Structure formats: structure tokens, C-alpha cells
Amino acid sequence: MVRTVLAVAVVALAGTALVAQTDPIKARKDLMEANGKQSKAGNDMVQGKQPFNLDAAKKVFAAFQEAGEKEPALFPDTSKTGGKTAALPAIWENKADFDARFAKLASDSKAAIEATKDLDTFKAQFTEVTKNCGGCHQVYRKKET
Questions:
Q1: Of 115, 109, 121, which is closest to residue 101 (Cα–Cα)?
Q2: Domain locations in the chain?
Q3: Among 14, 46, 83, 142, which is disulfide-ready with 25 (CB 3.0 to 4.6 Å)?
Q4: pTM of this structure
């Protein structure tokens, strides 16, 4: 009996992990949430709400780079609806542009990691890199109401 319960629990846990790995809407929301947290940290440094920290500044850009590299794969045709997605149909209608925007985000973020040496260089890089985010959200994300 104990073995059966344990076996069922293992199978259920494995099934849950598999669903989490194959749910692109959840995965992209999680990745964007992590980006949002890093963006807030960056904004706080830029605005002087928290002291500048070079490692933290580079971590912001590393998160953006990761999103730029991973996000395109998280928008398969099967994820156009469901999961309270804010993704607009324009993503799939203009997939090449959408993917190119993420590639630019990754590339710009990687360059920003190298270019950031102090608060002034961080501010300049942060301003430029986050333009990628806003530009994509304006075209490919439903407006919050």
C-alpha cells in the first residue's frame, strides 16, 4: 500500500513537472516576471533609491539577455490563447520581426554587460536596452486595463 501511494505521488509529481515545462505561456510569464524584478532593481539604481552595485547592474542585463535568447521559443503557434496571455495575434503574424526584437534585446544586453563600468555607464546602457522592452510591448502586448 505504501509503495503504491509513493509510486502514485512520484508519477503525479513528474507529470506536474512535465506540464510546467511544456506550458509556454507560464514559462514566458515567469521569465517576464523575473525581467520585471530586474528592471525595478535597475530603475531603483538609476533613480538613486538604492546604491549602485556593479554586480547587480550586470545581473539586470544578464536577465534581459536570457529573456532575449529564450522568449522566442516560448511563443509557439499552440500558445496563442489561454493562460490569461497578453500576447497579441500580431506576434504570429509578424514572427520574424518579433524574434528579431528579442535577438536585439539579447545582443544589446550582452554589450551592456561589457560596457557597464559605473553608474553613469549603467544609466546610459539601461536607458537604451529598456527601449527594446517598451518597443515590443507597444506592438505585441495587450494593453492593461
A1: 109
A2: 24-140
A3: 83
A4: 0.81
C-alpha cell at 82: 489561454
Burial of 99 (0-12, 13-18, 19+ CB in 10 A): middle
Q: What is the pLDDT of residues 95-130, one digit of tens each?
A: 999 999 999 999 999 999 999 999 999 999 999 999
| CATH value of 24-140 in 3.10.100.10, 1.20.120.10, 2.60.40.1120, 3.60.15.10 | 1.20.120.10
Phi, psi of 144 (to 5 degrees): -75, 140
Tell me the residue type at 12.
A
Task: State the chain's mean pLDDT as an integer.
Answer: 88
- The whole-angstrom separation of Cα 67 and Cα 98 is 13
- Residue 77: CB atoms within 10 A of its CB come to 7
Question: Contact 33/65 with Cβ under 8 angstroms?
Answer: no
For cell 514559462, the residue is: 27
